[in-house]
Specification:
249 residues, alpha/beta, six-stranded parallel beta sheet, binds 3-methylbut-3-enyl trihydrogen diphosphate, binds magnesium ion
Amino acid sequence: MTPQTPRHIAIVMDGNGRWATRRYMPRIAGHWQGVEALRRTVRACTDRGVSALTVFAFSSENWSRPQDEVSGLMKLLAETLTREVPGLDKNGVRIVFAGDRGGLSERVLQGLTRAEQTTASNTKLTLTVAFNYGGRWDMVNACRQLVSNGMSADQISEAALAAVSALAHVGDPDLIIRTGGEQRLSNFLLWHAAYAELFFTDRLWPEFDASDLDAAITAFAGRERRFGGVGVLANDRTSQGSEPVARAA
Ligand code: IPE
Ligand code: IPE
Ligand code: MG
């Protein structure tokens, strides 16, 4: 990992449906192909020393899709977990789910709980799968937890809310990538995106590969993150440049 490599990358994996439709295939075929892209991306992240990857797999709003697509996505998750968890476990990947578990079927719930338990002690990469996730849900859920923990209004702080949010185990992403050409968050990580660098690409998710990840990381490395401060480029370079001379005199 170079100093410019983001520690935590988050991805809105968008464009599966269009990838399939362009090939005259059903949309669900694009979602299955998206699993291949995710497998490539997990490997590329571990190779590059990225320690956290968070992916948007199913949003709070995706229930509004046709019933056969929704049930196809539930089946895809359950089957993918059965097939992929042993390999991910062997490669040191810890799997964590972020999202509202209410409304998920018993089969899906069992699969995700088992994946989390099996990989809990892995440390190479934390793969957080945002499933039935929405940034607004996350904030409301965090507030509910603070209240049920008995917290009073004056005890509530940014740190307290972040600590009960769905990304408490990995913190904020440094870089958010969205594939598929749209330039919006679609209710992903609203709280945690506060100072993330954003990278949008027209590549459809099923086509995404290590070279696309590298393009995003290179763009990230060229950004100046100021976090509301003035930053290096905004400093007066002439006065900085003259400092050693002044000191030497
Ligand atoms: C993203 O791909 C995956 C999910 C939302 C589950 P889409 O299914 O949104 O693909 P497009 O945007 O319709 O091409
Ligand atoms: C966002 O993509 C959700 C996921 C990638 C899981 P959508 O395709 O649902 O977003 P919109 O509808 O284009 O905003
Ligand atoms: Mg989409």
